[in-house]
Amino acid sequence: MAEDFILETRHLVKEFKGFVAVNGVDLKVRRGHIHALIGPNGAGKTTVFNLLTKFLAPTRGSIHFNGEDITSAQPAQIARRGIVRSFQISAVFPHLSVLENVRIALQRKLGTSFHFWRPERTLDTLNGRAMELLAQVGLESFADMVAVELPYGRKRALEIATTLALEPELMLLDEPTQGMGHEDVALVRDLIKKVSVNRTVLMVEHNMGVVAGISDTITVLARGAVLAEGAYDEVAVNPLVIEAYMGTEVEELASPAGH
Predict the structure, then answer these.
(1) What predicted TM-score, i.e. pTM, was given to this entire model?
(2) Is 17 left (phi over 0), alpha (psi -120 to 50) or beta?
(3) 248 CB burial (10 A radius; 0-12, 13-18, 19+)
(4) Does residue 88 belong to any structural domain of this protein?
(5) Fewer Cβ atoms within 10 Å of its own Cβ: the N or the C terminal residue of the chain?
(6) Residue 92 and residue 6: Cα distance in Å, rounded?
């Protein structure tokens, strides 16, 4: 049934001066699932994300969220509807405390963001909710630390906390474990699984251990088009998928760590 899908794209196409970056992508993201978008470098994954969050306009095709056509919506309208993107590069205010970062995200949700001239104590009412969010991502003991001093994995946890502050219905995670060591990868993988309860997550991710461990559905892109879709165990043995990765990640694809 259509209502089972929170997000759908229909024949989505993006061309750049004759180069087809996204080629007729039909994507269906089931409500309450973790859906991974994978593929070799240059497959069009980030372009799809940019189309979904309206940083790019599609050349052709349409995007539907909760059954409504949002193809022509602006980025701010998309966020207000409940689609919130967490960026590949950690997007926090580095010289504010961990608590202050989450509080700013809560202000944004209230429509009072960037009222920096107001006395700081007027924001104290947000502290309780901010601490709840920090507890969700295991950062309550880091609340007073300046964000720039956080270990890398914890910065990503903070970014997820600020994303949660916006009360997303659909979280778009762009390479959440990019550049991480094994310990941080495990931390963020478990965190995504935890915060996905009662939410939908669509993520672009290279780490096949993460993809295999937490994804309900995987869509494989190659040269801008959907090559395969299904559960990890189906996708990993698909000859077309193995060929698309051209042996560079086939071993990792077939038997990821932690799977």
Answers:
(1) 0.87
(2) left
(3) exposed
(4) no
(5) N
(6) 28
Written as one string, the DSSP assignment of 68-116 is EE-TT--HHHHHHHTEEEE-SS--S-TTSBHHHHHHHHHHHHHT-TT-T
- CB-based contact 162:105 (threshold 8 Å): yes
- 67 within some domain: yes
What is the rounded CA–CA span in Å between residue 76 and residue 83?
10
Beta carbons of 34 and 22 less than 8 angstroms apart: no
Q: Which residues contact 239 (CB under 8 A, 6 or more apart)?
A: none
Helix (H, G, I), strand (E, B) or coil at 54: coil
Strand partners, 30: 5
Cβ-based burial of 174 (10 A; exposed 0-12, middle 13-18, buried ≥19): buried
Burial (CB < 10 A; 0-12, 13-18, 19+), residue 73, is middle
Final residue before a domain boundary, out of 110, 132, 167: 167
Domain end marker among 123, 143, 167: 167
Q: Which domain holds residue 107?
A: 93-167
As a whole number of angstroms, the distance between CA 108 and CA 198 comes to 22
Q: What is the pLDDT of residues 9-54, one digit of tens each?
A: 999 999 999 899 999 999 999 999 999 999 988 899 999 999 998 8
Q: State both tokens at 176.
A: 């959440």
Question: From residue 5, how far is each of 33, 80, 170 by CA, in Å?
Answer: 10, 19, 11
Q: Which two tokens stand for residue 147?
A: 């964000």
> What is the pairing mode between strands 5-16 and 170-174?
unpaired
